[in-house]
Amino acid sequence: MSFYKNVTSKPWEYSSPTLGSGPESAFDTPSERIALTLFLVVVTVIFSLLTVTYYLRMDLGDWVPLADPTLLWVNTSLLVVSSVLFQLSRNVAQKEQRLPARNLFLAAGLFAISFVVGQIVVWQQLAAEGFGVASNPASAFFYLLTGMHALHIVGGLWVWSKTSLRFFGDAELSDLRLSVGLCTTYWHFLLVLWVFIFAVLTNT
Amino acid sequence: MAYVPIADQDHELHDPHSFVTKYIWSQDHKVIAIQYGGTAIFVGLVALVLSALMRLQLGFPDTFSLIDPSAYYQAVTMHGMIMVVYLLTALFLGGFGNYLIPLMCGTRDMVFPFLNMLSFWVYLLSVLILLSSFFVTGGPTGAGWTLYPPQTITPGTPGHDTGILLMLISLGVFIIAFTMGGLNYVTTVLQARARGLTMMRLPLSVWGILVATILGLFAFPALLVSAIMMTFDLTLGTSFFMPAIMAAGDQLDYNGGSPILFQHLFWFFGHPEVYIVALPAFGLVSDVLSTHARKNIFGYRMMVWAIIAIGGLSFIVWAHHMYVSGMNPYFGFFFATTTLIIAVPTAMKVYNWVLTLWEGDIRLNTPMLFAIGFVFTFVHGGLTGLFLGNVVIDLPLSDTYFVVAHFHMVMGVSPVLVLFASLYHWYPKVTGRMMNETLGKLHFWCTFLGTYAIYLPMHYLGFLGVPRRYYALGSTDFIPESAQALNANITIAAIFVGVAQILFFINVFWSLRHGKPAGNNPWGATTLEWQTPDTPPKHGNWGPELPVVHRWAYDYSVPGYPQDFIPQNVAGDFGVSDDHGHAEPKA
Which of A185, B72, B293, B556 is the most exposed place for a label (fewest CB within 10 A)? Predict the structure, then answer.
């Protein structure tokens, strides 16, 4: 869509429509992908605002930096593996290989679940070390940011579980391809987001 | 792969047949629109009653024992929040957005009908959570609709524990509902327009709703973030926003948080919210004015650019709500400048509305009266906005009735007048029957003159220095006795306007059965929603064939054409109309 061409057109001048079959679309992609992109923009706004408040609050004096829990590195690698598996599943699904696509897709989700479990373990460890949620603003932000991120993973897992069930049903691979692709995009986004959050949280 | 409407896919169109799938768990955008609209109007009536309670206390202090200070602040808070979020946002985007986007875009439904249905039910849930706070111990929150910490969650404020928690949860749930709806509206407008309907041929209603939805998708996250962080402060004892503070003689467990941080987050949502309400109103009123003036909208492209420009600017003016909180003078200068710049595209729109009326074949029916009434109230509210945008003028006026009068004129009365204009205008399409004109005009004059009787004196009281938010004025040296007499008059006018709304509801229900049958296109309008084969449109809107669009939305009074309007789906070149509404036959 050429934005400039659009806003400078003169709609009051007559021109008959180019005859095609489908409706007018601004982008030549499935609507689901456009909705996902918009949603990712919304999520980006949420986390940008959280990051801004994080840095503003940091300057207010009572900040006690967190000890960097080693387990976070393990969790990060779990999420990387999950993202890679989603990508492989997507690639295989393009090549009409239903069974490997399904298995890779399932494994990707399981790694994401283990990431969430890992995060819960981290929270428990921190709480046991005296870094409870109300102990100081750095801890509060740690729980807030990781919690919001984990919630988004859980939301993604809900879609993942629905698609997984369709893999076991009699859905055509061509129908599943879009869902697999969208899950892959979402997981890549959440991985990048996680790396960003991780960097923000550990650089205090 | 482009979007393929359900009805054009290979399998059969599954029309809903049972009552439940047709009217309750419906995925039809028209039914969802009515559900959204009905819920929003109902909760708006609750807010109207609350405002009456508030006004009774202010006009006649010491008269009504049931309104104690807590009840007063709770009424103020809930009135504000309900009107801004649960009525105006929901009715413009959930109601009119849902009804008009697929019809005006010439499609059969939203792109994601199930998500659309879910959006309504989640919205209803948020309303129920909000209303439930009236029935818990301590009642709803009385912190003011801005919910400023620390007082919001400090003992002494009404509803400082359960009430505020329910409010925050309700807002979170509302934002989820809005996001589901919003993704749908934007994707539908971008991807599923009828063949030939380019973006620049869209009616301004769709442009207004589209840009407002995009603003909402960017702005509501700020409210979500502040609501979540305040919930943390409230329930988990964190100190994001809460400073070290004493309440009722006790030191609370908070330390070091920043209330100003909350204000920034809140107004980063709060100011775009003004335009989330105003932009759909701008769009809808443009279409109503153009249709009933039988003239093309003046400066269509300028109108579209202005909508986009206002939407963009609305994100860099938020701190003008915080001048009294104190800020670096350079910040104040910046935000005052950006605020005043918004007046440029806004004034363009006002000029264009007036120039649309110029030499038009104006039909002064009820929707047109409300639309013209809007231009008046919007200019008045907008001009006082220019006063308040300046730091030095805002500081003395900020805590007075002047501000109350300003924002009620510009984002209370004005959008509500557009809502009525639009309800009277599109009612024939929704129900297939016309509304009663006599009752409608009576409703208009009571509402229009009544709101002036409320808000004009309020500006004056503001200049006198009458403070807002006060439960009762008491006796002070700087406010004369007569101020209280004026306050009582305002209350009488407010009760009158409130009661006059009964006329509207009588009209809605009476016309449902006894109104004149409307036919498909009673106003002689050009846009696609008036060209449906059935009125009210059936499930799928368009019968077997989708419409094809050949022209823009404003071909009114084109010379050489037998009718004074050419519907968008009529083919053929009948002349070129220029920006002034004059059409020249083509040589």
Answer: A185
